[in-house]
């Protein structure tokens, strides 16, 4: 099992599979897991993977494809399907760390074109144009616009001929966006805790001893440098 952080794992998935994931929870659809195995062995039947999945029963279908790949290659790792398809953070983080460790050991090297493999599978399973023409929208120039395959699966922003320096900038940008998202969630989490504590103190104020109440209020209203905020201070 690898020890990469959630940000490192999301960046790895996006670079390997040419996806635009923003959270490890998105791996709960099973799509990324199937393609990670395909990047190693090249024999996962991606035509059976539901890339446009939106519902839990479709996620389960994708994990059945993954399980068959595990059986074929004699991988005895138990896949906790029922927990993974709930798209929980901890479950998918742990499974991603395991599969990343497996990939590190088994990946044959070279470049895996995840976007091309997905498109090939879609082309093979797409019905004839005459049966789906009403589902597609034509632009004024006659080209056809198709919807994203699923959440996080879009056309890659970088092509194989992109310069290394631009790829590095793209990775840095993704890393910063993911980090910022994590910081915002962490900020909101702790702010909600502070609001709950403040509400509790206001409700229990008469029952607490004055020194204790004053100390708690001082902690809540003090900035990081330890100086107490005055009532007329602005943020």
UniProtKB/TrEMBL annotation:
Keyword Cytoplasm: yes
Key words, A-Z: Cell cycle, Cell division, Cytoplasm, Cytoskeleton, Microtubule, Mitosis
Annotated compartments: Cytoplasm, Cytoskeleton
Principal subcellular localisation of the protein: cytoplasm
Any one of the GO CC terms: microtubule plus-end
Segments of this protein annotated with the region Disordered: 115-166
Domain Calponin-homology (CH): residue ranges: 3-104
Example of a GO biological process term: nuclear migration along microtubule
Residue ranges, compositional bias (Polar residues): 118-129, 141-165
One GO molecular-function entry: microtubule plus-end binding
Ranges of residues in domain EB1 C-terminal: 158-229
InterPro entries: CH_dom, CH_dom_sf, EB1_C, EB1_C_sf, MAPRE
Origin: domain of life: Eukaryota
Family: Belongs to the MAPRE family.
Record protein name field: Microtubule binding protein
């Amino acid at each position: 099992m690898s020890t990469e952080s959630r940000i490192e794992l999301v960046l790895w998935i996006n670079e390997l599979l040419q996806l635009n994931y923003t959270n490890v929870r998105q791996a709960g659809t099973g799509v990324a897991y199937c393609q990670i195995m395909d990047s190693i062995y090249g024999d996962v039947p991606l035509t059976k993977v539901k890339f446009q999945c939106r519902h839990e029963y479709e996620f389960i279908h994708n994990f059945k494809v993954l399980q068959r790949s595990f059986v074929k290659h004699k991988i005895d790792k138990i896949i906790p399907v029922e927990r993974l398809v709930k798209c929980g953070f901890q479950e998918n983080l742990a499974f991603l760390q395991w599969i990343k460790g497996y990939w590190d050991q088994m990946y044959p090297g070279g470049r895996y074109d995840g976007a091309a493999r997905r498109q090939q599978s879609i082309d093979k399973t797409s019905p004839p144009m005459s049966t789906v023409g009403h589902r597609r929208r034509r632009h004024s120039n006659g080209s056809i616009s198709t919807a994203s395959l699923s959440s996080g699966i879009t056309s890659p922003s970088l092509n194989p001929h992109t310069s290394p320096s631009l790829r590095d900038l793209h990775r840095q940008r993704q890393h910063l966006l993911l980090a910022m998202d994590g910081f915002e969630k962490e900020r909101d989490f702790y702010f909600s805790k502070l609001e709950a504590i403040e509400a509790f103190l206001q409700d229990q104020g008469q029952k607490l001893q004055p020194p204790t109440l004053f100390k708690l209020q001082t902690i809540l209203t003090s900035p990081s440098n330890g100086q107490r905020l005055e009532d007329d201070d602005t943020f």
